[in-house]
Amino acid sequence: LGRRRRHGRRQAPELSARRVSMAAHGPALERRAGRGRASTSATTASRVLRRATVACHSRSPRSVPAVGLVRREREASGREVRACARPTTTTTTTTTTTGAAGEASTSYGGELTERALDPSAQNPFPTELPRGTTKREVSLLVRSLAQSNHEEVWPRAELMVTWLESQGGEARSLVDAWMYTEVLRSFRKRGEAGSALRLYGEAAARRPRLRLDSHFYAETMLALSKGDSKHAAAGEDIWNDLLRRSNAGLVTKYALTSFLCCCARSGDWRRALRAFHTDFYILQTTEPNKKGVALPDVVACTALMKALRAGGQWHKGERLLQWMYENGIEPNAYTFAELIQLLGDCGKWELVLSHYYEMTSSKSERESPSRRLRAPTANAHVFSATMNALCQSNKHDECREVWGKMISQGIEPTAITLVSLLKILERKHDGRRALEYFRLVQNRNEAEINIVVYNVVLSALSKSECAGEAKEIFEEILESRRVRPDRVTYETMVAAYAHVGDYRRADEFFRRMKFASYQPSDYAYVGRIKAYAKNDMWRECVSILKEVEQEDGVQPSVHVYNAVLQACFVTRKWELALKLFARMEEKKIEPNASTRALLSKICNEAIETCEDRQRQAATLSAIAAAAGALAIRTGVF
C-alpha cells in the first residue's frame, strides 16, 4: 500500500476484496490438489485480511461499501480454514498426514505446557520438540516456569532452556537471550547468585550465535547483588564484558543501576563512582548516531548513594545530592532515605535533621531559590531512616519527636518500621531502651506487633543481659492470643540465659522448644555451650558438641566449634582446643574469622603459659639446689 501511494496510485477496495476471496478459497484448492498446509494458507488469508481492512478505512468513498464484503469474505475464510484443518478420511494419505500433523502440533504444544507446569510430572519434557511449536509458545512456557512459585516447577525454566540447546537444529534456534533473562530473574528472586553466575558463563560461551542484550547483563548483575560480597564482586567482570561489547548500545541506565547495586553489595564505592562518572559517559560519545549525552536517572543515583553508604563516604553523598539538583535530576524519597542512613552511619545527626526538616516543611519552604527542584515529601522510609540515624547517635528525644511527626501526618508505622528501629538498639546492646520504645508503641496501638517484633525485643534484652525482662516478654507472648512463640523465640530465650551464665534455665528452654516440636538449630546449641563455658564447665561443652554430632537433622557448624573453642580458651585447655581444630579439618568445616582469632589467642596464651612454667621450673630448681646445699652444710644429710 505504501509503495503504491508513493507512486500516486491507491489500491482499490474491490481489488482487496478479490484477494481476500482468493485467500479464503486457496486452502480448499490446495487441499484438493494435496499441496501445502492449511496453516500456511490461513496465515496468508489473515495477512490479506489485515491489508484489506487498511484499504477499507482509507479516504476513498468507494471503500465504504466494501466493508460488508470484507466481513462476508472473512467469515467464509474462517469456515474454509476450519474445514481444511479438520482431518478427513476421504483424502489421500499425504493429506491425512498433513491434517493430522497440523492438529497434533497444537495438541502436543498444549501437552508440553501441561506436563512442564505439572509439579507431579516425573519427565516434564518429551524426547523431542513437537512439530509446529513456535518460538512464542516456547518463550511463554519458559516465562511461566520461571515465574512459578512452586519449588518443583520454577527450576524447570533452566532445564527447558538446556533441553532446547541439547536438541539442536530447529529446537536450538528457538533459544534466545530473552529466555536466559527470564531464568536469571528467577535466580534473582530467590537469591541464587551462584546459579546466575554459572548460567552467565554458559550463555557467554554460546556467542555469537546467542546475541546477548542489555537486559541479560543487567539481570545477571542484579542476581549477583543478591548474593554475598564475593558474588557481587564478580559483577565487575560482567560490567567490563558489557563495556567491551558496547557498540550495540548495551550500556543503558538499567545496566548501570545493576552494576551499582553490585558495588553497593561488595563495598567497592570507588569502582561505582568510576562507572557512574566515566564509563557511562565515555561510551555514549563513542556510539554512532548518538544525539546528545543522556544523564543517569534517579534510580541509578540512588544505587550510587547506596554504594557510597557501604564505603561511609558521606561527603560524596552530599555532593551527589547537589549534583542531582544542578543537573535537573529530581531526587525522590528513597534517595534521601539512603543519604540519611549514610549520614546516620557516620554519626552526622545534625545533617540528618537538616534533610529531615527540609522534607517535612511546607511546600513553599521546600522550594529553594538556588535550586530548580524541591525536596520530596517524607514518606515512611524517610521517617524510619531518620529515627534509625538518631538512635545511632543516642538522640532519643529527637527520635520520639520524629515518631510523633510521622503519626501526626497520618503515616501509620508498620512492623518493619518498628523492627528497623529496635534492631539499631539491639546492635548497641541497649535492651532497656528497646523495651521502652516497644511499650510506647504497644500502649498506643500505633503499629501491628507480630512475633518478629517480639523476637527483636527479646534479642535486644538478651544481648543486654536482661534475662528477667526477657522472661516477662516471653510470658506475655504465651498469654497473647494474636501471636505464638516460634523457634527463634525459644532460641533467643536460651541465649538470654546463656549471657548471664544460667545453664539450668537455658537447658529448660531448650527442652521446652523440643517439646513444642521445633527442631533446634546450631544457634540453640551455641547458647547452651556459652552458658556452661561461663561456669568453667568445659566437659559439658564437649558433651554438647558430641550431642550435636549424633543429632539427626543437625550438622555441627563452625559456630558450634567456635563456642567450644571459646570454652577451651576460658578454661585454658590448650591441647583440647588444638584437637578440636584438627577435628574441624577432618569434617571439612571451613573456619571463619572468629575461628582464626580464637586460635591466635589460644596459641599466644599457650606460649606465654609455657614460658611462665619454664621460668617457674627454673626458679624452683635454683631454690631446690640452694636448699640442698644448705642442708648439706648444716649436716642434715
Topology:
Blueprint: H1 2-6, H2 13-33, H3 38-56, H4 66-85, H5 93-117, H6 135-146, H7 156-167, H8 169-173, H9 177-190, H10 193-204, H11 214-225, H12 229-233, H13 235-244, H14 253-266, H15 269-286, H16 298-311, H17 314-326, H18 333-345, H19 349-360, H20 363-366, H21 380-392, H22 396-408, H23 415-427, H24 431-444, H25 451-463, H26 467-479, H27 487-499, H28 503-515, H29 522-533, H30 538-550, H31 558-571, H32 574-586, H33 593-633
Q: Report the strand count.
A: 0
How confident overall, as mean pLDDT?
A: 78
Q: Categorize the overall geometry.
A: globular
What proportion strand? under 5%
Descriptive report:
Helix 2 (13-33) packs parallel to helix 4 (66-85) and helix 31 (558-571) runs antiparallel to helix 32. It contains 33 helices and no strands. The model is unreliable at 1-46, 52-108 and 626-637 (pLDDT under 50). The chain has helices at 2-6, 13-33, 38-56, 66-85, 93-117, 135-146, 156-167, 169-173, 177-190, 193-204, 214-225, 229-233, 235-244, 253-266, 269-286, 298-311, 314-326, 333-345, 349-360, 363-366, 380-392, 396-408, 415-427, 431-444, 451-463, 467-479, 487-499, 503-515, 522-533, 538-550, 558-571, 574-586, 593-633. The N and C termini lie far apart (132 Å). Helix content is 72%, strand content 0%. The relative contact order is 0.03. It is an all-alpha fold and 637 residues long.
Offer a few descriptive terms:
single chain, 637 residues, mainly alpha, 33 helices, disordered C terminus
